[in-house]
Amino acid sequence: MEKDAKYFIKSASMLDSSTFELVFQDEVLIDLEAMKLIDTYCAAMLAGRRLKRLVVSGKNTLMSKEARLFGQKKSNVNKNLIIAEAVVVNTLPQKMMANFYFAFIRDFYPAKFFTDINKAKEWLSSN
């Protein structure tokens, strides 16, 4: 069975007129192929709008190195479309991945990781 983006995404929706929320499924490994599917799916939904982005990691969900590198490249390409990004993490490995990711994108737009979704939303609303 070939997986599509919805296999990896629990939900993808607009929280308000300027904030997009992407919630990943629990217990999945997002590899390069999956990341490309997710990118295409989200790009179609967002249609080039400039937005804030809230990314919620699934419990025990991880990304391969290739997927992370692809995400970093896409952040560079899309840096003019992202106002700010908050990432909610659940585990130490996710925190480590977020730190690495943010080190790469820190010059593109404001970004921060959280363990509490409400604090992430509050931070995004102030940006």
Walkthrough of the structure:
The protein has a single domain (5-122), classed as Transcription Regulator spoIIAA (2-Layer Sandwich), CATH 3.30.750.24. It is 43% helix and 28% strand. It has helices at residues 5-8, 32-46, 65-77, 92-105, 117-125, and strands spanning 9-16, 19-24, 29-30, 51-56, 62-63, 82-88, 111-114. The chain has a five-stranded mixed β-sheet with strand order 1-2-4-6-7, sandwiched between helices. A two-stranded parallel sheet has the order 3-5. A hairpin with a 2-residue loop joins strand 1 and strand 2 (19-24). Helix 2 runs parallel beside helix 3 (65-77) and helix 3 packs parallel to helix 4. It starts with a helix and ends with a helix. The model has no long low-confidence stretch (mean pLDDT 88).
Can you tag this structure with a few keywords?
Transcription Regulator spoIIAA, alpha/beta, 5 helices, 127 residues, five-stranded mixed beta sheet, globular
Could you give a quick summary of the protein structure above?
The chain has 5 helices and 7 strands, in the order αβββαββαβαβα.
Shape: globular
Order of helices and strands: HEEEHEEHEHEH
User: Mind telling me the CATH superfamily name?
Assistant: STAS domain
Low-confidence sequence ranges? none
Q: Indicate the CATH architecture.
A: 2-Layer Sandwich
Mean pLDDT: 88
List the SSEs and their pairings:
Elements: H1 5-8, E1 9-16, E2 19-24, E3 29-30, H2 32-46, E4 51-56, E5 62-63, H3 65-77, E6 82-88, H4 92-105, E7 111-114, H5 117-125
Parallel strand pairs: 2-4, 3-5, 4-6, 6-7
Antiparallel strand pairs: 1-2
Helix pairs in contact: 2-3, 3-4
